[in-house]
Amino acid sequence: MELRFTEEERAFRQEVREWIDANLPAETRERMASGRTPTKAMQVDWQKRLYAKGWAVPHWPVEWGGQPWSAIKRFILSEEIQSTPAPSPLGFNCNMLGPVLIAFGTEEQKKFFLPKLASLDLWFCQGFSEPGAGSDLASLKTRAVREGDHYIVNGQKTWTTLAQHADWIFLLVRTDPNAAKQQEGISFLVVDMKTPGITVRPIITIDGAHEVNEVFFDDVKVPVANLVGTENRGWDCAKFLLSNERTGQARVGASKERIRRLKLIAKEAPGGGRPIIEDPRFRSRLTDVEVQLKALEMTTLRVLADENRQLSQRKPNPASSVLKIRGTELQQAISELYVMAAGPYGLVAPHDPEADGRNEPDVAEDWQTLAQATYFNWRKQSIYGGSTEIQKNIMAKAFLGL
Amino acid sequence: MDFDLSEDQRLLQDSLQKLLKDKYGFEQRKGYMKSETGWSRDLWAAYAELGLLGMPFAEADGGLGYGAVETMIVMEQFGRALALEPFVSTVVMGGGFLRHGASAEQRAAMVPEIAAGKRLLAFAHTEPQSRFDLHDVATTAKKDGAGWILDGRKGVVLHGDTADDLVVTARISGQRRDREGIGVFLVPATAQGVSRRGFRTSDGQRAADITFDNVKVGPEAELKGGLALAERVVDETIAALAAEAVGCMEAAKDLTVDYLKTRKQFGRPIGSFQALQHRAAEMMVCLEQARSMAMLAAMMASEPDAAERRRQMRAVKIEVGRNARFVGQQTIQMHGGIAMTMEYAGGHYLKRLTVIENMFGDMDHHLAALSEEGGVFLAA
């Protein structure tokens, strides 16, 4: 047991830090440091730089642009990206679809899609959830009926994140409505968003942001060549995809960055005749969150060390289930601390002349107007990617045998 | 970074696990508790045989030269068994003082005896007014020729009733709460003027109230390092206790999950109810977070930067305490009445976890101090 980073790992962290500093556009860094999400152009530009450096998809096999790194080294890269903060490589492309294609795709699919996923030449979105299929994903109803060389897709997806930016979508569709189990009649397709019959309709979330969408499919013709894996075995791809994003969900690096920034803010923000950092209640809440984050950081490293092992020697690790549950709780707790720090100026909504249709004065700083918006927005975290309750169901079944 | 146990470490874990499985059933434990010492001399001898009692000492001093990871492995097993023996007092604390503060002669005299199970130590620091402050010391040490005279009272000295030697904090100079002017003294428990009254602690272990009345000791009794030495040893002890808590929590979780599978109400196992499943899952989350912190503690126990080590140990104390409290309480809640009884192991885990939570500072104590010190992640 060796619980410290090696000399080589520390040197690598330094190398990453210096490279990011030299290559991240100031505009992007500034926007992200203020707590906003990157624009599409910023995301694409940054991922292309990472791709050119060979750092966009280090966890993929080397032949598809990956790096022969340990899990710890990959963690260091992603932690440094998060803590700068810089945009992380697009999860839909790099952590979701890419690994699915590597595991289940045909040679042609791999050759065509993988480089474009890594470089973000194609932006993918995820078509899983439906109005009637949330936690019970396998109950999905979007139909794909085979007609010659095509599937005809009809139905609706929802909560489709950044579909407004997407060039393509990966979809779970029902190809056999008569299968004995509902998991058995599902297939996994990739679809060009420009195909006639696809309509994207924005959903505005309680923070006022346009992040998610409804996507409607009305007699959409999808070539059979766009089927990933075997027809009616799409659930295998879905399970593989969902089990793949274990450590990513903890987002420890991003949370550390948010806390670092909050500490700077709290030195200036008023806290009743003194900076709020000197308010013992605020400070001890902040410290308490830091303590929990430290524990989560260690848990993340344990899961990563586990991923370093050969597949055959790997045991299901209960620590991995902890990451989603506690990781999202902590991100939410941090967003509450920002609200606390902002106080009355946290009441000011983010100013958006386009959406409001009026030109109003900027009366608060960015971080103040974003405090409550982010708090509202981050309530989603314990819902998406398998809600906290679903995670606990999985733990009870898989690890406790209940 | 590597979280796997080495072959030797696995062997250590297996051999202790086997011994405790044979000798530390809940009923056997009750017997040890009723014995004169309140713990088992036979097991103490067995630990000596396994090499556990000489573990942390340098090989040159007659030990095995093991580190904090081995201590973690052993303490986790002791936690699972709710072991009563004075391992923390003698080996972790007493051993720590000898390793970091004693002379070569003192180590040569004492380490082989400790390793053989023939000598017991205890750390006397708490005073009626001190609460969790190691530096709040009213006990005095006055120069007496080349030696010293100790006067004062120490309370809740864990395993102080059976110890052969006491490590005592005493004030050489300054005011009661000054950080400067504190000495650490190694005092034979049989010295003239030492009187001890033993008592049971809330978790079924033993402690003593000890008064020092004009106790004369030689110049060699003062260990090197003063308060910094005591803090270093306490930090190592916090690491050991974190691992013990993890062992307790794991055993309590296992016991609870087993019970959920066998106990039937409304015609089915109560583990089929989602309200209880989710709480059991939360217990597991708590256990894993505490385990992560016990590992952090093992890593930081040898950190040379005292301020950094202190801050990280405070985080360990807070996070282990929080999670231990949840697991201990839920062990009882999910069992129902049965875990309220002395006759059942369940409640005893909460008792031990509560004692650990309140040793060397509770959660609020460390949260206040850590906030004051700038938190866990200092600005680079």
TrEMBL record, chain A:
Superkingdom per UniProt: Bacteria
Phylogenetic classification of the source organism: Bacteria, Pseudomonadati, Pseudomonadota, Alphaproteobacteria, Acetobacterales
Family, similarity comment: Belongs to the acyl-CoA dehydrogenase family.
Residues annotated as transmembrane: none
Residue intervals of the Acyl-CoA oxidase/dehydrogenase middle domain: 125-220
GO cellular component, one term: plasma membrane
Protein name: Alkylation response protein AidB-like acyl-CoA dehydrogenase
InterPro entries noted in UniProt: Acyl-CoA_Oxase/DH_mid-dom, Acyl-CoA_Oxase/DH_mid-dom_sf, AcylCo_DH-like_C, AcylCo_DH/oxidase_C, AcylCoA_DH/ox_N, AcylCoA_DH/ox_N_sf, AcylCoA_DH/oxidase_NM_dom_sf, Mycobact_Acyl-CoA_DH
Gene Ontology molecular function, alphabetical: flavin adenine dinucleotide binding; oxidoreductase activity, acting on the CH-CH group of donors
Keyword Ribonucleoprotein belongs to the record: no
Cofactors demanded by this protein: FAD
Species per Swiss-Prot/TrEMBL record: Neoroseomonas alkaliterrae
A Pfam match: Acyl-CoA_dh_N
Acyl-CoA dehydrogenase/oxidase N-terminal domain ranges (all copies): 6-119
TrEMBL record, chain B:
Keywords linked to the UniProt accession: FAD, Flavoprotein, Oxidoreductase
Domain Acyl-CoA dehydrogenase/oxidase C-terminal: 226-367
Domain Acyl-CoA dehydrogenase/oxidase N-terminal as annotated: residue spans: 6-118
Transmembrane segments: none
Cofactor(s) needed for function: FAD
GO molecular function: acyl-CoA dehydrogenase activity; flavin adenine dinucleotide binding
Domain Acyl-CoA oxidase/dehydrogenase middle, first and last residues per copy: 122-215
Domain of life: Bacteria
Alphabetical list of Gene3D superfamilies matching this protein: Acyl-CoA dehydrogenase/oxidase, N-terminal domain (1.10.540.10), Butyryl-CoA Dehydrogenase, subunit A, domain 2 (2.40.110.10), Butyryl-CoA Dehydrogenase, subunit A, domain 3 (1.20.140.10)
SUPFAM superfamilies xrefs: Acyl-CoA dehydrogenase C-terminal domain-like, Acyl-CoA dehydrogenase NM domain-like
PANTHER family: ACYL-COA DEHYDROGENASE, ACYL-COA DEHYDROGENASE FADE28
Family indicated by similarity: Belongs to the acyl-CoA dehydrogenase family.
Protein name (database record): Pimeloyl-CoA dehydrogenase small subunit
